[in-house]
Amino acid sequence: MPTPETSGATTLTPAEFTARLRALSPRYWDRHPFHLRLHEGRLGKHELQLWAANRWYYQQAIPRKDAAILANCPDVEVRRVWRERIVWHDGGGPGDDRPGEGGVENWLRLAEAVGLTREEVLDERHVLPGVRFAVDAYVTFARTRPWVEAVASGLTEMFSRGLMARRLVDMREHYPWIAEEGFAYFTARLEVVADEGKSTVDIVVRNCRTREQQEAAVAALAFKCDVLRAVLDAVDYYS
């Protein structure tokens, strides 16, 4: 339903709308105190393990979130683009050159590289209640909100490339005991995140045709930023 703030309001131009979305960058989790300590080399092994195990819970939820978007999206062209994201995270099927290789698998390798066993990550024994609540809320959002809002929530991609590039440099410098294969997630993600971010912006701008839809998209992105920070809040509290 239209709100008093959006009812009858002028639709933003694509440039204005995009600027509103990008203006949320200060809410992204790159400025979180836990991430600052991570990049400064001030985390101990236990803290890195707790972070890796809980971040894995978020990573494994992403393809389920994307599957929810596919289920709700009536636009075949968007579905064709979006289904590739599930493959990137889950890996290919038996007929592909690298079956099972994907972002989730690469994050498991990072968890192993910081000293966790695959079993203890997969059985979720280290997943904190706050992390589980925030991540599950994100998947529920994607399932229950209009598909374009769920797509807009993923626009944190706009802010992530610089963070990942810096993370590779800082972690290699400050945590040299982590084997190089543990960084496979970040090296692979850097190759796709810039293009994905632009594609997502284009989809959101094209499909938000009213001011109400635009404001809902901005709110969706703000919600996703809050989800990410809630994940780190929980890890920071228990580390």
From TrEMBL:
Gene3D superfamilies recorded: Heme oxygenase-like
Q: Which GO terms describe its biological process?
A: pyrroloquinoline quinone biosynthetic process
Q: Which residues form the Thiaminase-2/PQQC domain?
A: 20-233
Q: Name one GO molecular function term.
A: pyrroloquinoline-quinone synthase activity
Q: Which Pfam families match?
A: TENA_THI-4
Matching InterPro entries, A to Z? Haem_Oase-like_multi-hlx, PqqC, PqqC-like, Thiaminase-2/PQQC
Q: Which pathway, metabolic or otherwise, does it act in?
A: Cofactor biosynthesis; pyrroloquinoline quinone biosynthesis; Cofactor biosynthesis; thiamine diphosphate biosynthesis
Keywords attached to this Swiss-Prot or TrEMBL record, sorted alphabetically, are:
Oxidoreductase, PQQ biosynthesis
On the tree of life, the source organism's domain of life is Bacteria
* Catalyzed reactions per annotation: 6-(2-amino-2-carboxyethyl)-7,8-dioxo-1,2,3,4,7,8-hexahydroquinoline-2,4-dicarboxylate + 3 O2 = pyrroloquinoline quinone + 2 H2O2 + 2 H2O + H(+)
Q: What is its EC number?
A: 1.3.3.11
- Family the entry assigns: Belongs to the PqqC family.
Biological role: Ring cyclization and eight-electron oxidation of 3a-(2-amino-2-carboxyethyl)-4,5-dioxo-4,5,6,7,8,9-hexahydroquinoline-7,9-dicarboxylic-acid to PQQ.
Q: Which PANTHER family match?
A: 4-AMINOBENZOATE SYNTHASE, PQQC-LIKE PROTEIN
Q: Which HAMAP family does the entry link to?
A: PQQ_syn_PqqC
What name does this protein carry?
A: Pyrroloquinoline-quinone synthase
